Amino acid sequence: MSVPSPFPPRGRKCSPAAAAEPQRVQSYHAEIEQLAAFLRTWIAGADDEMRPLLEWQFLGRSKYFRPATVLACHQAVTPGPIDSAVITRASAIEMIHNVSLIVDDILDRSRFRRGILTLHCRFGHLPGLMASGYIAAEAFRLCRDYPFGVDRLAELLKRLAAAESVQWRLRRQPLGIEDWRYLAGEDTGTMFEACACMGTGDERLRTFGRLLGTLYHGCDDVGDVRGAVSLGGGGDEDLRDGIVTLPVAIAIRDPAVAVLFRDPSPDDLETLVAKVGDALPAAEEYLDRLADEAIVEARRVARNPGPLIDLVRNTRLLSK
Fold first, then answer.
1. Is the Cβ–Cβ distance between 274 and 268 less than 8 Å?
2. How far apart are alpha carbons 113 and 101 in whole angstroms?
3. Other CB atoms within 10 A of residue 67 CB
4. How many Å apart are CA 17 and CA 206, to the nearest integer?
5. What is the pTM of this model?
6. Rounded distance, CA 201 to CA 190, Å?
7. Per-10-residue mean pLDDT for the chain, 320 residues long?
8. Distance CA 103, CA 101 (A)
9. What pLDDT, on a 0 to 100 scale, did the predictor assign at position 60?
10. 179, 159, 161, 314: which is closest to 248 by C-alpha?
């Protein structure tokens, strides 16, 4: 199976801080191919009942951005080649990421992800939930001899559970940008914190990981509004469910938009989408500043910040 680069095409405009650095994109083709082969072998040996679900969820759909983050964070602090232990840790992260996707798709009632039916729509809700548990168990098994990794995966799942619950409880509330930033940091930021820690084997890049994940979340928010199908998901679903995205947090500074957001009728939804669309330029400016923060942190902490800066640049392109 040919594995695409985990990074999107280059050449678009970035923030001033990102533009000041020469481009040094590390696409990790060989390492990602090793990871993909590892997953194929695992799936081939899975329980007969689970194998079709795992093939549907994993094979041919992944962007591998989170494993690439593990690899880049490792390379930022450790000289030399990337060994098989790091590939295994990156595989565990990819598994937990897919657990989160399965649950998100069920919660969001999403029929499609990246152009094909979601797992629960193809096989049913119960098999989808059971597959998520099966995948999570394998991720922990992979790290059974790596206590630091077990702790990071446990922390990740616990914080994701709390973040999703808080986000759902606070839906339709007129929250501000700082509220959005906290929720994004606990949702997507937590995943990237785990990527950073699994890549380095310690906590030194945790703050960078949170910033990168929050940036990714914000770019996803903006991309959804723009109809960016490459990121998956759908902006209308967020508005339907009353989820505060970055453009929403900006748009509902207007009291009239906040009223619409709290209780929109089907006829109001089109107006609400337009108002949120008007907030996109301000959202893009905020993401530029967030990218700059991540670059500053990368330079402050890493002995070799180039791979981390590449991650920031390429993440920042996702909303455009």
1. no
2. 9
3. 29
4. 21
5. 0.87
6. 16
7. 36 35 57 96 97 93 92 96 96 97 90 90 96 98 98 97 92 92 96 98 98 97 68 55 91 93 82 90 97 98 97 92
8. 5
9. 72
10. 179
Instruction: State how far the Cα of 228 lies from the Cα of 175, in Å rounded to an integer.
Output: 24
User: What CA–CA distance (Å, rounded) separates 186 from 216?
Assistant: 12
pLDDT at position 17 is 36
- For 39-46, the CB contacts below 8 A with 24+ separation are 39/91, 39/94, 40/1, 42/91, 42/138, 46/134
pLDDT score recorded for residue 113: 86
- Among candidate residues 255, 259, 227, 261, the one with its CA nearest the CA of residue 243: 261
Tokens representing 253 are 């500074």
Token pair of 222, please?
């903006």
- Go through the chain and tell me how many residues it has: 320
pLDDT at position 23: 34
In Å, the largest CA–CA distance within the chain is 58
Nearest to 25 by CA among 91, 90, 71: 71
CA distance 73 to 80: 13
Q: Closest Cα to residue 209, out of 218, 221, 199?
A: 199
Burial 183-192, CB ≥16 within 10 A → b, else e: bbbbbbbbbb
Domains in the chain, please, with CATH? 26-304 (1.10.600.10)
Integer Cα distance of 196 and 76 in angstroms: 10
